[in-house]
Amino acid sequence: KHVQGRVELDGRAAEDYPSLQAFRRSLQVFPQDCYILGGSVRDAVDPWRQHEDVTINQLIRRLSAAIPSGGDGGGEASAEVLSLQFVVSPGGANLSAGQKQVLTLLRAALSSSARVLVLDELFSNLDIGAAKRAMAVIAEELVRKHGASVMLIAHSLQDLALCGDVWVMERGQIIERGRPLELLARESRFRAMVLD
Asked: Which of 14, 64, 131, 178 could form an S-S bond across to 7 if both were Cys, CB 3.0 to 4.6 Å?
């Protein structure tokens, strides 16, 4: 079924941006299985060299403190994975799933030009404590400093504890919307999913 609509960011239609690239910089999507470029960690998280090493190192330290084990642990690359010089294999073949997510979170946190960030299942390999701490870093960098909005797509209900607003969707339609605790406090589809 064909549906018509219009995509706007901050009241500006997508077709009014000077280029598709400018629009894509404003709306960035980070999928669960994000492809990691080969090369140094620095190249993988900031391929266009938009940030100073000191900025990236500060974020590495903050994410390392949030996720001390480098995600889910394991993999050939241990704690050294979060140094700028560590060499990542193409596709992140020498990294564990959690370590790939940490690098993707780092790249997301560096997306200062984005008005909207879509994080699709990005916390799936992290426990809820690590996910909350990582989300706090992203919120500080993007929401508070740059006024961006973060949309978290989650199939795991524990990830929804990170959100200020939950949208329950069915067949592409929003059927329910509200704060997680408010939706849990009343008879709602969200509550039924949590109790199931």
From this structure: 14
